[in-house]
Amino acid sequence: MPNIIILFSLKLVVFLTMFPLCANAATYNVLDFGAKPNNGTDSTKPFLQAWSLACRSVAPATMWIPRGTYLVNTIAFSGPCKSARVTVQIDGKIQAPPRNYWDIGNYGNWVLFQGIDGLTINCGILDARGSQLWDCKRSGANCPQGVTSLTFNSIKNGIVSGIVSVDSQRAHMAINGCNNMKVRKVILIAPDQSPNTDGIDIQSSTGVTIIDSSIRTGDDCIAIGPGTKNLLVQRVACGPGHGISIGSLARNPNEAGVEGITVKDVTFTGSDNGLRIKTWPKPSDGFVKNVLYENIIMNNVRNPIIIDQIYCPGTKGCSDQNSGVKITGVTYLNISGTSATPIAIRFHCSATTPCSGIKLHNVNLTYSKQPAKAFCFSTLGTSSVGQLGASLSVGQLGTSLSVGRPSPGSCF
User: Fold this and answer.
1) Catalytic residues
2) 411, 376 contact by CB (below 8 A)
3) In contact, 233 and 263? CB cutoff 8 Å
4) In this structure, are residues 122 and 156 in contact, taking their beta carbons and an 8 Å threshold?
5) Is 22 a residue whose pLDDT tops 80?
6) Which of 179, 242, 177 is nearest to 203 (CA)?
7) Residue 180 gets which letter from DSSP?
8) Which of 204, 219, 234 is the last residue in one of the domains?
9) Residue 397's pLDDT band (boundaries 50, 70, 90)?
């Protein structure tokens, strides 16, 4: 019998040498590095120490933020990391220092993750305490620009799940130069009149997915910037705010294009806009193509469907030129609900670069219990029968370009 035990032990050693068991994931608790919840102590340094060890771990590692409220100044969690996956588990609240918007407001980012392949962030509340900065901006005083609450730069294979962000100074979340990012079950909240509080800003990123989320802000729920490709937005509730916007584009003449955008199963409630594409009236090499809006519900939305190629907020920085952004292949499929204004569809495209391939299928929008109207300028497309009123409202802007078979309730 002893010989059998020895033989089995030797075989086990050989097996473990050839096929080692997976190492246990390491957990680094910010409390172990001096973080002090609920007492107003700055926890920035302990957070960075815990992150440093988690990022340097060869095995999958977790940075753990237990329950409690932690004051944190501007902070950058940087890679590359050694393991294939680093997790930040937030069971508490991360809060910006009180009355400190002057100190952090000029840094651009509050909580920044950058240069990481394989990042997961779970749960937690981020409170940027933006109200004092908003008051400063409303007063017309000289104020800092404010920070984005949560920024991702050059992240690959990232997952953000269950985050709640309240009262951002500017945007709640920014995704820049990322690849294969999934954002799910996030709640982003700022008052209706809070200035520039976008929900999620995206640019120069490929393969981003935003699902099962609620965004209630004072600006765009989602802003899709230059260089965005293969984006899916699904099962998102938007409003109040300025809707889901592609743009603004053509701010710079050599911007990358936007393509492969899908927005589906989304509800807009009380927002200024619903589905919006906006470009400055400037020369540009940019483009927008292959966009699908599907299964959308509008509840009292001021501009449910809008393409605005003369976008010029505050009439500053505008020119008398036409937008060079080429918009092609945009489909609106199964859009229903109520408009807060008589004109529910407004396509004002570039006079020199008309929109083309615009498709309206089963678009049913009403205003004051009557079919809403549509307005088109320099737009080519087709439509199926829907419940819109006048097929064209031109005003003093010129005539619409239309192709296909005209049908009631359509520009085309």
Assistant:
1) 242
2) yes
3) yes
4) no
5) no
6) 177
7) E
8) 219
9) very low
State the DSSP string of 238-273.
E-SSS-EEEEEE-SSTTPPPEEEEEEEEEEEES-SE
CA dihedral 134, 135, 139, 142 (to 10 degrees): -60
As to burial, measured by CB atoms within 10 angstroms (0-12 exposed, 13-18 middle, 19+ buried), residue 23 is exposed
Answer yes or no: do 330 and 314 share one domain. Answer: yes
pTM beyond 0.70, yes or no = yes
Backbone angles phi, psi at 359, to 5 degrees: -125, 130
Instruction: Summarize pLDDT for 182-229 with one digit per residue, the tens.
Output: 999 999 999 999 999 999 999 999 999 999 999 999 999 999 999 999
- Residue range(s) defining the domain that contains residue 72: 29-219
Do the domain assignments include residue 93? yes
Encode pLDDT of 226-278 as tens digits: 999 999 999 999 999 999 999 999 988 899 999 999 999 999 999 999 999 99
Beta bridge partners of 237: 214, 267
Residues 383/363, Cβ–Cβ less than 8 Å: yes
Which position has the token pair 């001021």? Answer: 302
CA angle 278, 284, 287 (to 5 degrees): 60
Q: Count structural domains, the chain.
A: 2
Start-to-end CA distance of the chain, whole Å, equals 89
